[in-house]
Design goal:
GO terms for molecular function: transition metal ion binding. Keywords: Iron. It contains two helices and five strands; from the N terminus they run βαβββαβ. By secondary structure, the protein is α+β, with helices and mostly antiparallel strands. The protein has a five-stranded antiparallel β-sheet.
Length: 74
C-alpha cells in the first residue's frame, strides 16, 4: 500500500521509499524515512496536494510523490 491511498485521519508507518532518484532524496530531506509514523491531515479540494503530519510538523505532498512511499497501516 502507498501513502497516496490513505484518507484524512488515517495513520501508518513508512515501510520504504520506492524512489532512489531526486524524489527519494527530496523525501528524505523532508524527513520521510522508514519507521516513521505518518498521519494524513487533509487533501486539497481537488485531492492534490495532501497535507501530512510527521514528527510534529506538517508537509504537503503531491499524490505523485506520495506514491513513492510504501506504508504499513497501524
Amino acid at each position: 500500500m502507498t501513502l497516496d491511498q490513505l484518507k484524512p485521519g488515517d495513520e501508518a508507518y513508512v515501510e520504504k521509499l520506492c524512489s532512489r532518484d531526486r524524489l527519494g532524496r527530496r523525501l528524505m530531506d523532508m524527513g520521510v524515512y522508514p519507521g516513521l509514523r505518518i498521519r494524513v491531515i487533509r487533501n486539497a479540494p481537488l485531492e492534490d496536494p495532501m497535507e501530512v503530519e510527521l514528527d510534529g510538523y506538517y508537509i504537503s505532498l503531491r499524490h505523485e510523490e506520495a506514491r513513492a512511499v510504501e506504508i504499513a497501516c497501524k
